[in-house]
Structure formats: C-alpha cells, structure tokens
Design goal:
Elements (H helix, E strand, L loop, with lengths): L18 H11 L1 H25 L9 H18 L10 H12 L4 H26 L2 H37 L3 H13 L8 H5 L6 E9 L8 H16 L3 E7 L2 E8 L7 H7 L6 E5 L3 E2 H21 L5 E3 H10 L3 H11 L8 H15 L4 H8 L3 H15 L7 H13 L12
Parallel strand pairs: 4-6
Antiparallel strand pairs: 1-3, 1-4, 1-5, 2-3
Length: 429
C-alpha cells in the first residue's frame, strides 16, 4: 500500500468521487494511495473507452463510469488493507449510482457488466505492476496468487450487488418511480427539506450543482420515438456539459431536464447547452446553474420564466434566463405590453420589411449605446446604412434619438420577441 503513489506532479488526477468518500479513503489507506487510485481510475476508464470504441462495442454510455471505477478501486484497496472477506464487500455508492443511471438511460445489463469486467482487468494489471516493481522475487508468486484471489472474489461481490441494483432500479423505473421523482422534486421546489430517501429515489446528489431546463413540444402530431429522442438529448447534453448525471421528469405537458455536476459548472455552460442539437419539435428554456437546494430552486424558477417567454415568442427554439428574464417580466401583462409597444413605436409599426429592418437596426443601435459601428458589426451592415436607418427611425418616431431611449429600446425588444404586440388583438394571458 505504501508503494501506491500518483505518477503526476502535484495532487494528481482530480477525484471523481465526492469529498466525503475521498476523505474516508485518505483516513484509511493514506493520501498517496487515494490519489493513486483517482489517477489509475481515470487512466483505466480512458483506456477501456478507447478499446470499446476501436472494437465498436457499446460501453461508457453514462459518463459516470470513472466515479464507479474509482469507488470500486478505493473499496478494494480498503478491503485489502483491512483484510476484509469478499462476503463482507459491497459495491460502493459510486458504482451503484452508475448502474441506476444506466437503467434510466436504457443501457443494457450486458454493457454494464462488460464495462465492470474490462475495468477490473485493468485494475488487476495496475496492481500487478506495482507488485512486480516492489516485491522481492522470492515472494512475487505468492503475492500475485493472493492478490488475484482477492480481486476475483471482490469483483464477483461487486457484480452480484450491481446486478441486484440494476434489477431493482429497472422495476422501479418502469413502475412508480417517475411519479415518485416528480413528487420529490415538487416538494423540494415548494421549499420542503428532502427526506432521507430523496437522493435514492432521484438517483442524483442534491447538495451538489444543478442546471434545469424545461422543454415543450411544438408539434401536436405523432413523433416516432419521442421519449427516446428526449432521453438521447438529455444524455448528449450531459456529455457536452460534463455533468455527473441527468434526470428527465414529465410534468404538465413539459419535460424537465435536470443535470447535476460534481463541481461548479463554468459560466459558459449555457452556451454549451445551446450548441447541443435539439430535435426540431422541441423548444427549450434554461435557467442558470446553481448550487445546492437553493441553486436548484433558482435554476428551476429561471427556466420557468424563460419557458414563459419561449411559449409566447416564435423567435427562437432555445431561450435562457439571461436573455429572457426581463422579457418575462414585461410580458406578464400582455395587454399592457401591447399598449406600451404601440405607443412607444407609433410610426415604426407594421409588417413591411423596410420598417422591420429599421426597427431591428434601431434596436441594435440603442442596445450598443448608440454606437453605429457596433450595430453595423452585429448586423453585418455598412455604418452608412445604420446611420440612414437610424435617421429614418427618428423621422418616423417624430422625436430625437436621445429622448426616451430606455423605453424605446424596451419596446423594440418586446416587438422583436413578440411581434403580435404591434397588432390590435386579444392577447394570451
């Protein structure tokens, strides 16, 4: 055990397990051995993933295999250190979480077990290499036999536990679990503290970091494999975002996508999510990432606000709170918003394309602090064209450009997002 040290400088590879698991392992087998396990697990998962890809074999499908491999390796080292019998070894939480996620993402049990055995083989190779370098020649055979016997009995225990966990999760997933998950999420959003079973039911860690998006179908017709397409999008987004897990929950005609992260997501994660291909019948609205239960509630609230804008605006398939937050407030009273637009933009109203171009140019001009150059760059126009359209807008509005700039810009943003506000009509509530 004393020979287990990471090969990289500094702290080595970043652990995939939660801090409590790492602290427990460090207390048991030492900081160096724990860091070696994190580094070895990351390397093993990369190697196995490459092997599967080269062979065209399904595997590494949940994105949490590193945490599962690391948790099993740490449990194995602790078991070896204590001399724990295989009958008393249980599959650790990180591996069980990976299995539960496999069920939710439709990964067959054969693929799960293939990954387990492939990682086990690589773990065995790594430990045998340590023995070869550090054990005297006259003891190598005995040490190898003892290690192989222990590892084989441990992995058999892991496999038995993981298969039971897979079967239990499968029965729940196809039974009452979706309703239970909705109940738990609703209670959390209502401000209640989650019970002891909440994380097991959800399959997610609540005290970490969260990102919520709300999807709405824009098609009332039949969409083949609708549920599978939603699941694939959630998994693709989780991979792109570097999320530790993803959950999809159906609620009142919408789909809630819930991604969790072991570390705080980068502020650019919304742009990453925006770049993930969406089925053409889905409109998505996302909140900002948040931490803990408060962050989960805030991200959900913001996603709902953005969803309100998405439902009323024909402009975009993807809205995030940064661009939709103000519009959500302004459109809360559609009748009042329409009156505001029609008063502020009198002279610029109408479906004519020239008027639309003038409105859009003026919107960019005011948004850029009255910079013709910035507006020209944003619209890919000549600065003279911007100057002409702004001059024409002043003439049509019959007021100086520096008069009521903020109300004018707000009205232009409303008209851009909700063109129907420029018309006299009944508005959605």
């Amino acid at each position: 055990m004393e020979s287990l040290r990471p090969t990289t400088t500094g702290a080595g590879a970043r652990p995939a397990s939660d801090p409590a698991t790492i602290a427990s392992a460090e207390a048991e087998i030492g900081v160096a051995a724990t860091a070696w396990a994190a580094e070895a697990a990351a390397h093993i998962v990369r190697l196995v993933d490459e092997e599967f890809n080269l062979a065209g074999t399904p595997g590494m499908m949940t994105g949490t295999e590193q945490e599962g491999c690391e948790a099993c390796l740490l449990t194995t080292l602790i078991g070896l250190h204590r001399g724990t019998a295989a009958a008393d070894i249980l599959a650790p939480r990180g591996a069980q979480d990976n299995v539960r996620l496999s069920v939710r993402q439709g990964v067959p049990i054969a693929s799960v077990l293939r990954t387990v055995w492939a990682c086990h083989t690589r773990v065995q190779d790594a430990l045998l290499a340590i023995i070869e370098r550090n054990v005297p020649p006259d003891r190598i055979v005995a040490e190898v036999r003892e290690l192989n016997a222990a590892l084989f009995s441990y992995v058999n225990s892991y496999v038995s536990d993981l298969m039971r966990g897979y079967e239990d999760e499968l029965s729940l997933w196809h039974g009452r679990l979706p309703a239970e998950r909705l109940r738990v999420l609703t209670a959390i959003l209502d401000g209640e503290e989650p019970g002891e079973e909440a994380e097991r039911i959800l399959g997610l860690r609540l005290r970490r970091h969260h990102l919520i998006a709300v999807a709405r179908s824009t098609s009332s017709g039949h969409v083949p494999d609708r549920d599978a397409l939603r699941q694939h999008f959630g998994a693709d987004a989780a991979h792109a975002l570097g999320a530790a897990g993803v959950l999809t929950i159906e609620h009142q005609g919408t789909t809630i996508f819930w991604w969790t992260f072991n570390t705080r997501p980068d502020p650019s994660s919304i742009n990453v999510l925006r770049a993930v291909p969406l089925p053409d019948w889905i409109q998505l609205a996302a909140g900002r990432p948040g931490s803990g239960l408060a962050g989960l509630r805030e991200s959900h609230f913001e996603a709902q606000q953005a969803a309100r804008v998405a439902q009323l605006s024909p402009r975009l398939e993807f809205w995030d709170y940064n661009e939709a937050g103000m519009l959500a407030l302004l459109i809360a009273d559609p009748q009042g918003a329409a009156r505001f637009v029609q008063v502020q933009l009198a002279g610029l109203l109408g479906p004519d394309q020239k008027l639309a171009d003038i409105r859009d140019t003026l919107r960019h001009f005011l948004s850029a602090g009255s910079s013709r150059l910035a507006a020209a760059q944003a619209l890919h126009l000549a600065t003279n064209t911007v100057a002409y359209r702004v001059k024409r807008a002043v003439e049509l509005l019959d007021r100086p450009i520096n008069e009521n700039q903020v109300p004018t810009l707000v009205a232009l943003e409303l008209a851009h997002a909700f063109p129907y506000l420029m018309e006299a009509r009944e508005f959605p509530q």
